[in-house]
Write a structure and sequence with these properties.
Strand order of the largest sheet: 2-1-3-4-5
Number of helices: 7
Number of strands: 5
Shape: elongated
Strand content: 5-15%
Order of helices and strands: EHEHEHEEHHHH
Structural class: alpha/beta
Length: 179
């Protein structure tokens, strides 16, 4: 049986494109999670792995839907293999039911891990370079130092209501409470 697995990271993302592609590929059953791929504990993935039978083929639209790290991807595919099932990725045209497919899978997985590590390195280098030039990332403060002092005075000494102070300074009530 062809078993589909789909995953998106947030509730704002949609599984439809993945489930449509898996159905078109012949998936008789589709398991779907809404959780980051970096999380290893995923309810539907675990349920799918528990239900695998000899001869099943786990199919995904892209292999990064199954895992985000090379270590997890290899472990999950090994679990699939131990249960007598195969793994297939539609986008990369990988099918571990064949020796050539297993080789291709390992090559693609290694390249993907390398690229993720390079992106992380470039990001860190860029942030370090910006810090050297005096640029600090993140959102600018909602209140200046002088405004913070005034907010604290109005809140603590004058006992003015937080919503009123927030409206005056055009900030959230939480910002007023943190000041």
């Amino acid at each position: 049986m062809i078993i589909g697995y789909a995953r998106v990271s947030t509730d704002y993302q949609n599984l439809d494109a993945q489930t449509d592609a898996l159905t078109a590929a012949g998936a008789g059953k589709i398991f779907a999670d809404t959780i980051s791929g970096s999380k290893r504990a995923r309810a539907e993935l675990d349920r799918m792995l528990d239900q695998l039978r000899d001869g099943d083929v786990v199919t995904v639209t892209k292999y990064d839907r199954l895992a985000r790290s090379l270590k997890d991807l290899l472990e999950i595919v090994e679990t699939i293999r131990e249960r007598g099932a195969g793994f297939r990725s539609l986008a990369e045209d990988i099918d571990t039911t064949t020796p050539a497919g297993r080789l291709t899978f390992h090559v693609f997985a290694s390249i993907a891990q390398f690229e993720r590590e390079r992106i992380s390195e470039r990001t860190k280098e860029g942030l370090a370079s910006a810090r050297k030039r005096g640029r600090i990332g993140g959102r600018p403060p909602a209140l200046t130092a002088a405004q913070k002092i005034e907010v604290q005075r109005m809140r603590d000494q004058e006992q003015r209501p937080v919503p009123e102070i927030a409206r005056l300074f055009k900030v959230s009530e939480r910002t007023v409470r943190r000041a």
